[in-house]
Amino acid sequence: MGVPHWSKKYSTSFNEWCYSVRKAGQYNFVMCGMSDSLEMNFERAIVRLVDGNGNMISEKYFRGGGGAIQNTFYSVETTSDKGFILCGFTDIGSGRGYIVKTDSLLNIKPLGISNITFDLYNYYLIQNYPNPFNGNTIISFKINKSEFIQLKFYDLKGSEICTLVNEKLNSGIYKFEFNPNIYFLTSGIYFYNLIIGISKSNIFTKKLLYIK
To answer: For 31-81, how does the pLDDT look when each residue is reduced to its tens digit (9 = 90+)?
Structure first.
């Protein structure tokens, strides 16, 4: 097991998710993901450049036009001109993939947008926050159309612990607070499923860690 050299927390008021980290030059690192900070609670893609001790050098937020609610960078790579190229997702229309090029200080220059038509992007299950958790945690998901939704919680053996949602919902972003004390949980790994439709045509799963 590795020994941590340092840890950093960059936001104290908002939820953030980091999906990718790359080395940037000899000493720096670049990370990307999603933040729900600012802009009327719309989730925005974020890219952040830090030095070898985790101190922030630069950060940029990105939100697609056209009323996009959710925007995420999933991957970042360095480029030969010392800049970065990022790919991600914005929910304009039925969902679109983004490719973004930045310079070395993360100044963003969009390269293009390509349509994504998979039904997968009509639904999005967000990682709970905080995770790991030792008190209440927030489970969120987004749906782009009215649908019957179930949100279920399971233990590591696959036994159902509870159903948090079991109803037809309109399109939108939903957040539910989960209280482990109600269910007398012990420390360990658990899972939650977002189940779409009465026929269960799509099922999305996330893992979470409870530390009592």
So the answer is: 988 887 654 455 778 889 999 888 989 888 877 655 556 778 888 888 888
Encoded tokens for 84 = 């970065």
Could you give the CA distance from residue 13 to residue 161 in angstroms, rounded to a whole number?
Answer: 30
Q: Please name the residue ranges forming H helices in 46-100.
A: none
Structure tokens at 199: 């026929």
Provide the β-strand partners of residue 166: 150
Q: Cα–Cα distance between 98 and 89 in angstroms, integer?
A: 6
The class level of CATH for 16-117 reads mainly beta
Closest CA to 178 of 115, 116, 130: 130
Q: How far apart are CA 32 and CA 95, in angstroms?
A: 19
The residue to which tokens 């609610």 are assigned: 69
Cα dihedral across residues 202, 72, 208, 14: positive or negative = negative
Q: What pTM value is reported for the model?
A: 0.51
DSSP category for residue 120: G
Q: Residue 5 corresponds to which tokens in the numbers above?
A: 């050299």
Q: 122-210 maps to which CATH number?
A: 2.60.40.10
Q: Where in the chain is the domain with CATH 2.60.40.10?
A: 122-210
